Here is the input.
Amino acid sequence: MWDYSDKVKDYFFNPKNAGLLADANAVGEVGAIACGDALKLMLKVDPQSDVITEARFQTFGCGSAIASSSALTEIVIGKTLDEALALTNQDIADFLGGLPPEKMHCSVMGYEALQAAVAHYRGETWEDDHEEGALVCKCFGVDEGMIERAVRVNKLTTPEQVTFYTKAGGGCLTCFEAIEEVLARVNADMAAEGVIAASAAYRVGSIDPRSLKGKPRGSTPAKPSAPVSVPLSVTAPRQSPLASLVPPPANPAPLTAVQRIKLIDRAIEELRPFLQQDGGDCELVDVEGNTISVRLSGACVGCQMASVTISGVQQRLMEKLGMPLRVVPVK
Amino acid sequence: MTPVYFDNNATTKVDARVLEAMLPYFTEQFGNASSLHAFGSEVGAAIRGARRELQALLGAEHDHEIVFTSGGTESDNAAILSALEASPRRRELITSAVEHPAVLSLCAWLEKNRGIKVHVIPVDAKGRLDMDAYEAALSERVALVSIMWANNETGTLFPVARLAEMAKAHGILFHTDAVQAVGKVPIDLKSTAIDMLSLSGHKLHAPKGIGALYVRRGTRFRPQIKGGQQERGRRAGTENTPGIVALGAAARLAGAHMAEENGRVRDLRDRLEKGLLQRIPSCFVTGDVENRLPNTANVAFEFVEGEGILLLLNRAGIAASSGSACTSGSLEPSHVLRAMSIPYTAAHGAIRFSLSRDNTSAEVERVIEVMPSIIEKLRALSPFWDGSGGEARFNPVYA
Here is the structure.
């Protein structure tokens, strides 16, 4: 069973502020029974002072979901709406003396419900966010906006952390690449803002999604405030003949477009002899933003290992340029 | 307050008589059965004795059809890998959607890494195999069928004797993971066409780390662990003598308690189910109620989540288990309940109570007494519960 803190256990066994709040004027409902947890947060806000005078909750979910919901009500009572909006899911987790990493999504659910309740009070529609951003994970109904907020607030830098905090990718994993893209994009922005180190920013393609399914889950709490950088042994595709070529990361100095293309071209030229050894070849076709199109030819065409080759090329280029890139094959 | 252990499908307590039987094989009888001296030959006799106990429990024709292994997972792996190796031209497998991960994970791995085609036969809402899909999948391209004797979560029994006959008609080997069935239901292998059967010691009051694979005489077999002539060359490595002796003793006791298992234990299970269904609204039994293990009750409580139930049960000194997502570290409810299309409103709140001959009626009464207030407490917290048994109106965003 989970290694819950005493405070989590206490808030689960003896939840405070559980039940309906009849005259609530701010209500936030998030989650779904299919996803395994859902929360209805009910607040009473004093219209004069904007202070939350009462808070109650109803939660369907595991022990930590119930404890997180109850903790949230305790935290917000007495706060103004603006103060409440400044809270993050980390405040809920801290209040409870920490949550197991796999359970951080319970605190995120509390945060989302609070945002929804305040939006309701102010007459705004708390976007289901499906309009603001596309639905990323269909299994758990997680959209881009929610992933973005969780990544920013908690300084997440791996897809696995995104799953722990939002559940996105916890089911069929077909959304893995979409999660990667959101994570890499937000991380790149965060790195540019100096919120996280550039070396910690996630790069698309650096984790094999197959390594996530059925992977033993650690019980030590993740420390998202000190982002973990992905070790090379994980990023380098194991079967790739290119894996041993990966040099230490280059210094990420800003490059002009021409410099970048030159660098990419040179990196590909360096790789070609290794592909030619196996009767294949590769040429640069186009560079558009962070997407690099290449054409595989010779024995690479129709080879089952082509995707491994592509990810090897991608890895090599990312190391060379020191920035997240995506390599796509074109016909 | 003595704890109540209702999680015997996870593992069982070692029977005191089993422990007593095995202990001398750590100390006085420590010999290696392969040795020629007296130390070795005494141990060899003990291993033969254990083999005969298992032969009797399984109704096997010959004692040498029993191969000792480290447990159920090794036996499952050995059977599947051996069958593929022995029939290199047959590149397909048949299994069910509700198998234990010991089988399903291996099949997924073989599909991905060895290009083996795997037919995963679905089940209906009661967990019964789709016989049409099974029949359609049988062909001379299939090396092995691996279908469990009884499901670990719901206790549903599969018609393995009939399935084996159907496979045999196509020259397909038939393996069954009988880890949950052995010792709970009568088995007579010599009257069936089953070629291989896996069992595990710790599910029948023997210790962990010992199990067996039954391999019918004449079955093509390729050892997966090589390095010695033990077990007639089918499983190399010096025998785990204390474990083997323990498994033999446990098999003898299981045979002796078979009537009790299907009498007193079944009555306890039925009493538990009846008590829970009577006292708690909106709950139901999952699985094939008419045709399942005598010790297993899987009850789905609607509109609540399993982890909360287990935490509250644990505080009351009661051990059970759940197919819920939250307890396993996965985010989705058990593959078994999903394969049965149990609605999400109930699948998250499914609790498995699995009994054994160690349990008493006083324990059953205690669970019946404690459970209603636990469910009531959690339902009072649930936004999906409207207080009368229906689903409350609740329309959250991003649902």
In short: Chain A touches chain B through 46 residues (CB under 8 Å). The mean pLDDT of chain A is 79.
